[in-house]
Amino acid sequence: AHGDVCAARSWEAAYERELRSFRDGGDAGEIWFGEESIVRLIRWMEKHQIPRDSPVLDIGTGNGVLLVELAKSGYTNLTGIDYSPSAIQLSEQVKEKEGMSNIKFQVEDFLAPSAELSGFEVCIDKGTFDAVSLNPEDAVGKRKQYVRSLRSTLKSGGFFLITSCNWTKEELLSEFREGFEILEELPTPKFCFGGRIGNSVTALVFQRK
C-alpha cells in the first residue's frame, strides 16, 4: 500500500481546525510536508530564472503558505485552487494577514477544472496527487483524469513540480508519461510527515511536451 494520506473528509476537518486556530491565535497551522519542500520549489524556480510574472498554479493549495512564500520572493501572478472551501477561506485569511494582494484563490476541483484554468507556465503539487490517488472510488480513473487536467492547464513547455509521499520516481514517471518528460529529480529528506519511517518524499520536475 502506498501510505495512508487521509481521505477527503478528514482533510476538510483538518482545514476547519486550522481555520479555527488561525482565527484564535493567528497561526497558519501545520505546513504539509514541512518548510524545506517549499524552499526547494522556490529555489528551483529561481535557479531556472522563471520570470516573476509567469502564471503559477498551486494545485490543492491548502493553507496557501506556498503561494505566500512565492509572493514574498517576488512572484506576481499566483493562483491557488482547492476543492475545500475551508482551505480557500483559510488561505484568504493567511493572504490578508500577510498583505499579499497578487494571489488569487478559488474553490476548484482539479479533476473537473473550469475552462479559465489554463495557460499556466508552472503548476505545483504538494500531496494533492497523493490524495487523489488514494481515493477509494476509482483511483486509477481519477489519476488518469488528473493527468488530463494537467495537460489542459499547463501550457506547452511549461513546468510541473510534484512532491509526493506515496509514489517513487519510477511510478511517477509512468503516471505522467503521456504528455510530459522528466527534467530532474530534486533532493529530498528521507522521512515524511507523521513520522512514518522509511516513507521517503519524491520531488520531480516535469516539462509539458
Protein described:
The protein has 209 residues and is α/β, with parallel strands linked by helices. It has a single domain, classed as 3-Layer(aba) Sandwich (Rossmann fold), CATH 3.40.50.150. The protein contains 7 helices and 7 strands, in the order ααβαβαββααβαββ. The chain has helices at 8-25, 35-47, 65-72, 85-98, 128-133, 139-153, 169-175, and strands at residues 56-59, 78-82, 103-107, 120-126, 154-164, 180-186, 202-208. It has a 7-stranded mixed β-sheet, sandwiched between helices. α1 runs parallel beside α4. The chain is globular and about 45 Å long. The relative contact order is 0.16. Residues 1-8 and 27-33 have low confidence and may be disordered.
Gist of the model:
This is EFMT2 methyltransferase. With 209 residues, the protein is of the alpha/beta class.
What structural keywords apply?
alpha/beta; 22% strand; single chain; 209 residues; Rossmann fold
Itemize the secondary structure elements and their pairings:
Layout: H1 8-25, H2 35-47, E1 56-59, H3 65-72, E2 78-82, H4 85-98, E3 103-107, E4 120-126, H5 128-133, H6 139-153, E5 154-164, H7 169-175, E6 180-186, E7 202-208
Parallel strand pairs: 1-2, 1-4, 2-3, 4-5
Antiparallel strand pairs: 5-7, 6-7
> Going across the major beta sheet, what is the strand order?
3-2-1-4-5-7-6
Mean model confidence by pLDDT:
85
CATH third-tier fold name: Rossmann fold
CATH homologous superfamily identity: Vaccinia Virus protein VP39
